[in-house]
Specification:
Structural class: mainly alpha
Radius of gyration: 31 Å
Helix content: over 70%
Order of helices and strands: HHHHHH
Number of strands: 0
Distance between the termini: 71 Å
Oligomer: single chain
Number of helices: 6
Shape: rod-shaped
Length: about 140
């Protein structure tokens, strides 16, 4: 069962303020108040950890989403570029990511393999002019 640590911290803080003592000289029981303040501190710390974990999960999701978007952008740029200049922009982005330690080549190949099949997946790394020259050099099948 999940505990709302923030609510528990607030409950202990409010209880700590109203704990009375049987002694008439001390209207507030210091031991009980100390206990409630300590419990409030524990729950407040746990609540802060929950917020941090949620933030980390959100950041991780954002990074994964952005990585997938980059992979898809590079894969589509390599596969669908009609000019060598457009192809070089996509390839340059992939090379830049490699230089900073974020190699996406396998993911790009996997994405293109999923879309176009294994035979064409690695060919997208060649420029459109090279692909056209290879296609024109092949004899016609009939």
């Amino acid at each position: 069962m999940s505990t709302g640590h923030r609510a528990e911290a607030e409950r202990h803080l409010s209880q700590g303020a109203f704990v009375s003592s049987p002694e008439t000289q001390h209207p507030v029981d210091p031991v009980a108040t100390d206990f409630h303040l300590r419990m409030a501190q524990v729950h407040a710390t746990l609540a802060a950890g929950e917020t941090g974990a949620a933030d980390v999960a959100a950041y991780r999701h954002t990074i994964q989403t952005m990585r997938f978007a980059l992979i898809r952008h590079i894969a589509d740029g390599l596969a669908h570029s009609e000019s060598d200049e457009a192809h070089q922009h996509a390839r340059g982005l992939a090379q830049y990511l490699d230089s900073v330690g974020l190699n996406v080549d396998r993911e790009v190949d996997a994405h293109n393999e999923e879309l176009f099949g294994a035979a064409y997946a690695h060919a997208v790394w060649e420029s459109p002019s090279v692909r056209r020259a290879k296609r024109d050099a092949e004899p016609l099948p009939f």
